[in-house]
Design goal:
Length: 80
């Protein structure tokens, strides 16, 4: 991503604030910790979104069990 792409017009206020906080380079261990925390937060948000989708679509553990036993591959025309 080039510098031209990172204008304040293309970033929201939170993104600009994070860039200001991280203006000075961090020690590698600190950066790794921040990165792990960000991934953990995004993972939690994804889990919540999936749970909401499952609930809205009446998806249960039994649904996944049934799907795991189905055959999804289409038959090859070579073998017909």
């Amino acid at each position: 991503m080039g510098a031209k792409e990172l204008t304040s017009d293309s970033l929201n206020e939170q993104q600009v604030m994070m860039l200001r906080l991280l203006k000075k380079p961090l020690p590698a261990a600190d950066f790794a910790q921040i990165r792990r925390l960000a991934v953990k937060l995004l993972s939690q948000q994804l889990d919540e979104a999936i749970e909401e989708w499952e609930s809205a679509n009446n998806i249960t553990a039994e649904t996944y069990e049934q799907l795991s036993k189905e055959h999804f591959r289409s038959s090859s025309k070579k073998h017909q």
